[in-house]
Amino acid sequence: MTTTLPALNEISADFVVARSQAAGEPAWLTERRREAWVTFAQMNPPEWRRTDLSKLDPTTIAPSDGAHATAIQWDPALSAQGVVFTTLAAALHTHEALIQRYIDTAVEPLKHKFSALRAALWQDGALLYVPKGVSIEVPLRLIYTLGTDGVAIFPRTLVIIEPQASVTLIEEFVSPDLRAGSFAGPITEIFVGDGASVRFISVQHWGAGVYHLAGQRAILQRDANLEWTSINLGGQVQHIEAETTLVGNGSRLNWLGATFASDSQNLVIAPWMRHVGHNCESFMQFKTVVNDTAYSVFDGMIKIEHESAGTSTRLEEHALHLSPKARNDSIPGLMISTNDVLKGGHASTSGDIDEEQLFYMQTRGIPRAEAQRMIVMGFFEPALETIPLEELRAELTAEIAAKI
Predict the structure, then answer these.
(1) Considering the chain, what is the average pLDDT of its residues?
(2) Has this prediction a pTM greater than 0.90?
(3) In DSSP terms, which residues pair with 320 in a beta bridge?
(4) Count of CB atoms within 10 A of residue 303's CB?
(5) Contact 138, 169 (CB under 8 A)
(6) What are the CA-CA distances from residue 351 to residues 54, 157, 221, 234, 323 (Å)?
(7) What is the C-alpha separation between 109 and 97, in angstroms, rounded?
(8) Do the Cβ atoms of 338 and 309 come closer than 8 Å?
(9) Lowest model confidence (mean pLDDT) among 24-33, 106-115, 365-374
(10) Greater confidence, 334 or 364?
(11) DSSP characters for 319-330?
(12) What is Dmax (Cα atoms) for the chain?
């Protein structure tokens, strides 16, 4: 049974400071927690028009007491090459300077009330550090588990990949079905050095009842390459603010997503591709399926900054509706602050499964329900086929099939 701290309305800045000091955390982190808590206590919740937080009472949230939700799967022999993959709590005692240099520099900690809450109360989390030139062939896996009703966790993933290194990281969020009010506020910060390559797969498949309010950001340096897959299936309400910033010249991003909202789920994702460097390339393609009375939102944006030049970029979202009562809002955008763009564009499509396709498959002896399942699975195939672990891919395939 996970033990918890008092509910948020019973916590004070002094309480946050005392807990940090009792845990032996460095003074700089204690001060950051205090500042974040004061900001949280003073701010009103953000006005997210498409995210339904009407049934979430922040004062009843009971944060987890200690780091209980983090599981790391890797080959410890990699440590002989200088690789570090450990809990963030442990890493504070062994790699404090590295953490202090990077943490809170990608995802803005005081942007709004919930980001400040995450920065103040995180306990769970992991540090992945890959030294210069080290190539890791086997995927690394990080699993955050929420196992108790009414508990809140605020896990942090900090990924630092040095120049010319490469790695695949799978980040998962899992739980059984929980009562409404269970809360997860994760932060993921990824730093990809010059010429480094990262494959990052983020899988949100909470059980029912979980509120998932997340911040994710990757920063790419010169000639860095990121392949990002975002899978979103679970929870009751999701709001993810995600961004990749292409800072270095020649950096590249390929970002695929798959979202399936069913029952009464409200799943929102707002992914940004921000171009700063010269001659950078990016491509985003998200696929969304909505069923029952669910509501999904894709609020994607390409931002090309003034100092960028020679950008090539495209953003797409495609949605399928399996129920007339389900809804998907697709809001692709493009903001350009320079006159030197090689290629830029965005697109969106939305509609029901083609009845002619279904009819054709039925004439070949395939039952309608099976035909619908095959079309949906094929729709999601570009994202699913990037998952390197067969057992996880099979698990997600079964979850998707159950939602059709």
Answers:
(1) 95
(2) yes
(3) 289, 351
(4) 18
(5) no
(6) 29, 36, 38, 22, 10
(7) 19
(8) yes
(9) 365-374
(10) 334
(11) EEESSTT-EEEE
(12) 70
The first and second tokens of residue 236, run together, are: 């009751």
What whole-number distance in Å separates Cα of residue 212 and Cα of residue 183?
6
Contact 270, 244 (CB under 8 A): no
Angle (CA) 82-84-90 rounded to 5° is 135
Please answer whether residues 144 and 155 qualify as being in contact, where contact means their C-beta atoms are separated by less than 8 angstroms.
yes
Give how far Cα 308 sits from Cα of 110, 123, 223, 260, 274, Å.
27, 38, 15, 35, 10
pLDDT surpassing 80 at residue 203: yes
| Torsion angles phi and psi, residue 271, rounded to 5 | -90, 135
Round to whole Å and give the CA distance between 122 and 208: 23
- 271-275-276 Cα angle (round to 5): 140
Q: Which residues contact 18 (CB under 8 A, 6 or more apart)?
A: none
Phi-psi region of 156 (alpha: psi -120 to 50; beta: other; left: phi over 0): beta
Task: Determine the residue type at 88.
Answer: L
| Residue with the two structure tokens 């440590």 | 79
Residue 7's closest CA among 144, 116, 121? 121
* DSSP H/E element including 144: strand 140-145
DSSP conformation class of 59: G
Distance between CA atoms of residues 337 and 254, nearest Å: 22
* φ, ψ of residue 94 in degrees (nearest 5): -115, -25
Q: What is the pLDDT of residues 76-112, one digit of tens each?
A: 999 999 999 999 999 999 999 999 999 999 999 999 9
Helices (H), 61-185: 88-94, 96-102, 113-121
Of 59-63, 90-94, 187-191, 292-296, the least confident? 59-63
Identity of residue 58: P
Which residues are bridge partners to 72 per DSSP? 142
- Helix, strand, or coil here: 148? coil
Give the integer Cα–Cα distance in Å for 150 and 218.
30
- Vertex 380, ends 302 and 197: CA angle to 5°? 55
SS3 label, residue 280: coil
